[in-house]
């Protein structure tokens, strides 16, 4: 991969230049259509590299297609926004998929530019080689390198999930300052090394914006062949790529937040999570099942390595759960996780298990995975329901006993969402003291009866009181629901998770009441 700081030089046939530019435009259109979703991006990038050499990251043809399309898009505001947005998404995705060697090569490619910046004050070096904005961003990379000595030390800490910090002037990370993800002291931002991906992607985007601005002001050509090419690319863009350039919500699940979202997981996955936290190990198939679930829930490969390293670095709590310590087996575990993400071996973009496959998969005695409604006996199933906070279990147990496993899971979903209306919400009120100072006071109130949130809760909960239930393994409909109530459907554990997360967010929005006195 490259930062695309220096355009390639040489001769190329016009038809090849046209082909590469058109191919990249069509490729970026597909990137935009993914809305930044990691699994979809992996498919798009993999298919693109197989279809054309100009989409193989870091190749000379990749650079040709990038710079030619950059120049073409610079003449049109809409195309500029499209190019910056899609290239930033692509860069961020490629960065998230890199291993140690690839990250080291990426950062070392900056060294020649950092050296040029140091020499810019000398008389034998042109002062206009870089704009002030580009120099500022390159200096940010130089600051990072100076704090750790060598790129490989920095990359190692990042991939190991180290808790170390690095510092940059706050103006380089305004997007993190706005989200309060950094500590500020005298204009210097102290940034967790785990935020490296956000920092690098932000710096890349700023440099891309600057280069596009320069191109729109200074790049002009009288070559009729290039002008015809630019005109045809613009026409192709207007026909196929004119849509909202703002990608929709992108799921992101960091390793440190998994415990916070367990409540949104279906019983099959929450059981695996609790087992992992208790035993610090999962059997092979269970580990694959949970890894793929976390992948589809929004956990990038780097966060997955941090998550599994933290658990497998601890001694296992009992005999028989399998798995060696991470230390001494890091290469094997790392390869296994990257393989599940389609980054090693056959590079297949594996998807998570469906409910149907979990319900019908054979399960040995030592495995913890699978569908608990299909594999657990009544007593163990009741224990899981107790942990989930569900005490009226007769109907759920009856569904499980009769082989209606999806119906049982749907009722768990219902019970967990019904508990939301008992949740306390934060109510804020502001008032002015006698000295003129505005004071914000907060208090928790039950949303059951004590506030106007109650009616809003009921409206939201009414929409999910009877989720649509998938067919069971015999193809029989598991309960007939009125059509107007069939608003929720999940055929995979991650669909259950996403829907529950959506409802939690809706509840939080409802409870953001503010009363001004």
Lateral strand order in the biggest sheet:
1-3-2
How far is it from the N-terminal to the C-terminal residue, by CA?
Answer: 56 Å
**Helix- and strand-based class?**
mainly alpha
Radius of gyration, in Å, reads: 27 Å
Tally of domains: 3
Mean pLDDT: 79
Q: Shape, please? A: globular
Approximately what portion of the residues adopt beta-strand conformation? Answer: 5-15%
Q: What would the CATH topology of the largest domain be?
A: Transcription Elongation Factor S-II, Chain A
Detail the poorly predicted runs.
Answer: 245-249, 435-446, 463-487, 513-517
Q: What's the CATH class of the largest domain, please? A: Mainly Alpha
CATH architecture descriptor name of the largest domain: Up-down Bundle
Provide an overview of this structure:
- The chain is mainly alpha-helical.
- It has 3 domains: 14-164 and 192-240, Transcription Elongation Factor S-II, Chain A, CATH 1.20.930; 255-353, no CATH class; 415-516, no CATH class.
- It is 53% helix and 7% strand.
- The chain has 22 helices and 6 strands.
- It has helices at 14-33, 38-51, 60-73, 77-96, 100-108, 111-119, 132-148, 151-159, 174-178, 196-218, 224-240, 267-279, 284-296, 301-312, 330-340, 355-360, 372-375, 378-387, 394-401, 405-418, 453-462, 493-510; strands at residues 165-169, 183-185, 188-192, 424-432, 438-446, 514-516.
- The strands form 2 sheets. Strands 1-3-2 form a 3-stranded antiparallel β-sheet. A 3-stranded mixed β-sheet has the order 5-4-6, with no helix packed on it.
- It is globular.
- It starts with 13 loop residues before the first helix and ends with a strand.
């Amino acid at each position: 991969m490259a930062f695309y700081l220096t355009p390639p030089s040489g001769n190329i046939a016009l038809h090849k230049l046209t082909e590469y530019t058109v191919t990249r435009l069509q490729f970026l259109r597909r990137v935009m259509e993914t809305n930044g979703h990691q699994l979809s991006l992996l498919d798009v990038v993999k298919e693109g590299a197989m279809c054309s050499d100009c989409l193989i990251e870091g190749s000379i043809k990749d650079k040709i297609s990038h710079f030619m399309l950059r120049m073409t898009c610079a003449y049109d505001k809409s195309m500029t926004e499209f190019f910056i947005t899609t290239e930033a998404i692509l860069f961020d995705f490629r960065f998230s998929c890199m291993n140690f060697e690839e990250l080291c090569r990426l950062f070392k490619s900056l060294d020649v530019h950092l050296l040029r910046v140091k020499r810019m004050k000398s008389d034998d070096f042109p002062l206009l080689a870089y704009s002030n904005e580009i120099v500022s961003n390159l200096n940010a990379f130089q600051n990072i390198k100076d704090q750790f000595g060598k790129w490989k030390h920095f990359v190692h800490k990042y991939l190991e999930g180290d808790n170390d910090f690095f510092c940059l002037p706050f103006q380089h990370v305004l997007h993190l300052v706005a989200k309060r993800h950094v500590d500020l002291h005298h204009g210097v931002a102290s940034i967790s090394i785990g935020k490296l991906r956000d920092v690098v992607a932000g710096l890349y985007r700023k440099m891309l914006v600057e280069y596009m601005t320069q191109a729109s002001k200074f790049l002009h050509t009288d070559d009729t062949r290039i002008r015809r090419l630019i005109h045809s690319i613009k026409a192709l863009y207007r026909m196929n790529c004119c849509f909202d350039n703002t990608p929709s919500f992108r799921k992101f699940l960091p390793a440190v937040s998994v415990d916070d979202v367990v409540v949104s997981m279906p019983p099959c996955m929450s059981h695996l999570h609790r087992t992992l936290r208790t035993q610090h190990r999962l059997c092979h198939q269970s580990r694959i099942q949970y890894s793929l679930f976390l992948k589809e829930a929004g956990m990038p490969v780097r966060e997955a390595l941090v998550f599994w390293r933290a658990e497998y670095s601890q001694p296992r709590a009992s005999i028989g759960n399998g798995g060696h310590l991470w230390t001494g087996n890091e290469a094997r575990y790392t390869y296994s996780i990257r393989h599940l993400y389609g980054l090693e071996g056959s590079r297949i973009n594996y998807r998570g298990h469906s409910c149907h496959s979990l319900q019908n998969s054979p399960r040995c005695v030592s495995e913890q995975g699978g569908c608990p409604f299909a594999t657990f006996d009544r007593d163990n199933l009741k224990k899981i329901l107790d942990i989930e906070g569900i005490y009226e279990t007769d109907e759920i147990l009856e569904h499980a006993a009769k082989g209606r496993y999806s119906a049982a899971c749907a009722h768990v979903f219902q019970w967990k969402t019904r508990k939301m209306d008992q949740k306390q919400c934060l109510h804020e009120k502001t008032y002015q003291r006698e000295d003129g100072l505005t004071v914000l006071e907060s208090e928790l109130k039950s949303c059951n009866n004590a506030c106007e949130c109650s009616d809003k809760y009921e409206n939201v909960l009414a929409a999910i009181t009877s989720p649509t239930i998938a067919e069971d393994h015999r193809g029989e409909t598991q309960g007939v629901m009125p059509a107007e109530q069939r608003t929720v459907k999940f055929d995979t554990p991650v669909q259950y998770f996403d829907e529950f997360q959506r409802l939690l967010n809706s509840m939080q929005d409802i409870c953001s009441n503010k009363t001004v006195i």
